[in-house]
Specification:
The chain is 69% helix and 0% strand. The chain is built from six helices and no strands.
């Protein structure tokens, strides 16, 4: 590593992981959680995988009681789910929408995609 000070290391980590919210990753974590099975893994390995996903989810969506923030988490998850289910030809729109500072609601996202498709005609 070329990082010579702790501050440089933390600054680099902050830059790499700056978007704690990351709704796209949150959706992927939920997907992995729902699909995770023990299969041929040992119980400790299965536990570690499950616990790792839960720890990562907690990093992106810490437990809280603020209803507005919980609603926002759900809204972001719905938009991520909608976008991930799009046909491959519309995947480029996914990055554009999730890359916005404020992720639009599901209805706004749907409207934006309809406008985008109309422009292609």
């Amino acid at each position: 590593m070329s990082l010579t000070t702790t501050k440089k290391m933390w600054d680099t980590l902050k830059m790499v992981y700056r978007d704690e919210k990351n709704p796209s990753r949150v959706f992927e974590i939920y997907k992995c959680l729902f699909e995770l099975k023990q299969g041929d893994k040992s119980v400790p390995k299965f536990y570690r995988e499950l616990n790792g996903l839960i720890d990562e989810l907690e990093m992106h969506q810490p437990a809280l009681t603020d209803a507005a923030t919980l609603r926002e988490y759900r809204q972001d998850l719905a938009v991520s789910n909608f976008l991930s289910g799009l046909s491959p030809s519309l995947r480029s729109q996914r990055g554009q929408i999730l890359g916005e500072d404020n992720i639009p609601t599901l209805s706004v996202t749907s409207s934006e995609l309809c406008v985008f498709l109309l422009k292609l005609m």
